[in-house]
TrEMBL record:
Residues 28-102 form the DUF4283 domain. It comes from the Eukaryota. It comes from Gossypium lobatum. This is DUF4283 domain-containing protein.
Amino acid sequence: MEEDLANLNIFEEEEAPLWGQGNVDVIEEDYRLCLVGRMLTDSVVHFLSTRNTLADLWHTLGGVVISDIEEKSYLFRFYYEIDVKRVSEGMPWTFNRHLIIFLPTCR
């Protein structure tokens, strides 16, 4: 089991950045109140069930928007810093006995 855990990583591979061309308007999004989460399982994960259960469980002050980034990876956008802190400090989180790893976003 320790070998399996040692080989886990949250990202499969790093993608090259895309560069805009010409006069493309860049929209800056604020990711300070966001977490990225990844479900550690080989099983199929039902996104809507995960989203609804976690949102109900956390009872955030301002709500939370949970977006499906890719298979088993999610963006959690909070509206208050206290909600981000409470979720971060309440770890580890699981859904259907599958561990969810959370990381702050890089911006």
